[in-house]
Structure formats: structure tokens, C-alpha cells
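Exercise: predict the structure of this protein bound to alpha-L-arabinofuranose.
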Amino acid sequence: LQAKAYFDTHHHVGVIDQRIFSGFLEHLGRAVYEGVYDPESPLSDEQGFRRDVLEALRAMRMPLVRYPGGNFVSCYDWTDGIGPREQRPVRVDYAWKSRETNQFGTDEFMAWCQETGIAPMMAVNLGTGTPKEASALLEYCNLPGGTYWADRRIQNGHEQPYDVRLWCLGNEMDGDWQAGHVPAEVYAQRAKAAAIIMKGLDASIETVACGSSGRGMSTYLHWDRTVLEYCWENIDYISAHRYSENRRGDSAWFLAEGVEIDRVVEDYAALLNYVRGVKRSQKRVYLSFDEWNVWYKNMEMDGKGESAPHLLEEVYNLEDALVCAQYLSSFIRHADVVKVACLAQIVNVIAPLLTKRDGLLVQSIYYPIVSFAQHARGLSLVPALECPTYKAGERGDVAALDAAMSYDEASGTVAAFLVNREQRQEMRVVLSLGDQRFCEVLSVEVLGGGDAKAANTWEEPKRVTPRSAEAHVNEAGELIVTVPAPGLAVVRA
Ligand code: AHR
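Solution:
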């Protein structure tokens, strides 16, 4: 296969917000307990944090981690998770039918963030909780002292405020599975009340209102429009969530998932422009794609009353990694709309990392995420593709190449992210920069080729790992690289 991708450093959609490489940690299954926090493990530090998990996450360069949920947050009383550990109550967790020991709470999460160099993105409970309780958590986290909740933080040994900048106003409130789910009009009132009180306490914070939890929801975009119209002046982002699946077992169809991801982002771009237009507003609201991943193989959601049960422990293969790469490329291509995105989740639960007490398994989806986060810097250049199509099942004829490119003006380097969706033929891709010539290839890393279902396992942990490859620059100053079938190539020049 042959394809050509044209870019020009003057033709861009703005600077890529590094917060699109963020993650999500929920009190769910073994994500918190046995995932990030495991005092029993020989691999943990003196605070009980898994060192190997910390290290693997550092390489992912996540600017933010969203916490503590997810569905969990909608029944969570954050005051259960602070103060002396032995006095914290054990609770039933409604969302995942589990037992929550509260041994890890807000202060432990903040300590963990400090340890990893990650900033917290907090979600408040607007399902069964009130705007007032949400503002108490903000006071606990951000106010300097001299008031009740800020003083409680200081009494708990944390003199300095945590200075949390980004706050989610609930989680998936459009879903009938959500504790405290209400119609859009009612949620909009709750969200606005919470945002006003919270921004009244700390004017420097930003807020994310709940958008639709998926494109399949019957209220998709109606919900979002209602919330945006009511809360426009009080919020900074609307959330989108998407979990990709290949239940039909059609890899050709699944590998075209980027088309749908683009569509969702473009739906929101249109809606945000529409509401801004109707309001004749100067203000901008952006998209926080704060849950995304592949999730369909492990649907075990009933914790049977246990603490840290094995739930949602999805095993990822090559095609899943290539779909993850397409999420990130889509976020890059829409850098003017998507300012935050969180991989759901980071460890054990639908995650790139799986732990056992004395070991860590790095799954296939880890590698594209590390590579994108490491190399996507600066402006997002707009691609123009000349490329063959392939038969993507019910999705019809789809471009075989998915491409995004970043351009870092300071260093003059570009990074190209290229997915070959075709499973049988590798693809020779010619990259052309209209206004410049490529001079030197700095690095090429490829992932894939061969069995789309290949996965890393405890027995065979290195089946899907990236390897370095070659690229060259021709006399016309174009860069030529070969992308495996199916596969990803990340080229820096
Ligand atoms: O990430 C798992 C769950 O998926 C989250 O708790 C919820 O928000 C979504 O439905």
C-alpha cells in the first residue's frame, strides 16, 4: 500500500494541550487497593504506594489524574476518607457492589499525586451529594486555613492547600445506572449551583459539566445542549465518554474506530459553536474527553461485597492499542476543541497496567500512549491524505491511514503518528511538509504487524512491544516510512 500525507506548518488548529494525555483512577475493583496502593506488597514504598506502578505511570507523563470516580463518586461521602485511618468507616459501595474500606482517601490521593508529579482532577458527588458538600471538599483541598474544612485538612497533617484546579461536577449523570440520575434540566440546576458556590470559594478553578456518557444514549446531544445552555457562564468544559468495543469480532471494522471518535468530537465541536452562537457569547467552553478506552471483554461489575475484587480486568491486544492510538490522534487533530482527555483507567481496571502482589504486566495499549505523550508537542498540523481505502465491514470504505502530526516551533521538530488500519499489507507513507523540507530523521518507532489479537500475558509479557525502525528523506525533502500491517509508526524529524 502507498499513501501520501501533506502538512504545512502554517496550517494548524493550535497548540496541543498536554492534558489530553491524562488518566483516571476510580475506587473500583483493584484500581486503588492492590493497584496504586498496597501496603502488603514488597514492591510498595513506606506510604504503601506501588513503586513499579508509579514508575510506569511516570513514563506515561500524565498531567492530570481524575479521581475518585466514575460511578463510585455518586454515592461517595468524601468525609469518610479523611482523618485517622483506624476511625474511617467501612462502607458498601453501591456502584460496584463492593466493600470500601476508606483506607485511601483524598489526602492519600494528593500524596500519591505529589509522588508521581501528577496534578489532581477531582470529581464531586452530584448524584446523592449536594452542591454544599461539594464546596466543602473544595474548601478542604484549596483554602489556606482559618475555616472549618481547611482547618480539618491542617489537623490531618496537611498544612499546604492542594490547589486543585480542575473539578468535575458529578459523573455520567445522564445514565440511569448513576446513583441520583436526574433529567438534564435538574442536573443542570445542580451543576450550576455547585459551580457558582465552588467558584465563589476559589475563583481560579475550572469546572467540567457532565455531558453524555456515550453516543448510544437516547438523550445524546440533547442532554448536552440543555446543560450547556443553562450552565454556559459557569463551566469551562463539557465531558464526553466513549468505550470502544469489538464484540462482533470484526477487526477490519474495529480498526476504523477512529472515524467514530472523530465524529463524536465533531458533534461536540458543532454543539459548542451552536450554543455559543445562540448566546452571542465571547466565552469558550471546551471538551473534556474524560473517559475513553477499549472495554468490552471483561464486563465483571459485581464485587459481591468484597474489598478490592477483580473487576473489569480487561486484557488488551494489538488492535486495542491501535484503537487507542486513533483516540489520541483524533484529540490531536481536534486540539482546538479537546483540551483534556483521560484514559480510563490507569491500573488493573480497564488499564494499561496489571498488578499482582509481586509483579507488573505492561499491556499493549501502554506503548502508543507513552509514545504520543512523549512526542506530541506544540502545534497540531492539519493533514491532507491521499490514501487507499479498505473494506471496514459495516463502516464501508474507510481510509487505510489514520494520521496526525505535531510541530514544535521551538525545536523545529515534527512528530507524525501513523496508523495502518489494513491488516494484510504494510503501508509505505510519504510525508510532505509544504513549506519546509525534512532534513533529518530523529527516531522511528513502530508497533504491530501480524496478529491483531496478539496480547501480552504474564507468561509472554513482551509479545506486543514497540521496536525501532528506519525512515529516510528523499531528494524532494519528503520523509518516507513503512507502517506495519496493522500497526502504528511514530516518526520524529
Ligand atoms: O470507567 C468505568 C466506568 O465507566 C465509570 O465508573 C463510569 O463513569 C463509566 O460508565
